[in-house]
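User: Second chain of the day. Same drill as before.
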Amino acid sequence: MKQLLNFILIIIISILFAGTYGILHDQITFTLSPEYYTLLKFPQFGIENLDLNIRIKAGIVGFLATWWVGLFLGIAYASVSIFLDSRKVLKVTLQSILINLCITVVLGISGYFFAVYFLTPENTDWYIPLETVDIRNFINVGSIHNFGYIGGVAGLIVGIIYQIKKAKAIL
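Assistant: Same format as last time:
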């Protein structure tokens, strides 16, 4: 019973952390390129016509774009937790999720610098709406987002290794 409860809690915690990360992340990247949201993300998520503050819309996009990553990560962490000491697993898994988030943040920041130094409108084959005025920052934000997803996967790998080592797997 404790393992089932841990399994469910890990998934819920992971979704909440990912969604919160997405909200905060998109508030920061909205500041860098509002056009990335108004011209791309709001229409992509079908919220361009909602009568809401633009920052709230960015938060909605952030949550909708990341909660499912939290679900995926949560299922992975919860699945591993089945084989671990149920008395230690919640604390260790929470630490693993935080490690995952840190790696995601670091890689997202790396995505910004990658864009600044290596990406140009000429060598970037992304959809950029014709109305985009600040193409440079549009590309920077796109790169931050892409690297963030890479960070989520890289963080999962490191997080699971940490989770297993720290909880002393009983496989």
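The chain is about 80% helix and 0% strand.

User: Great, on to the next one.
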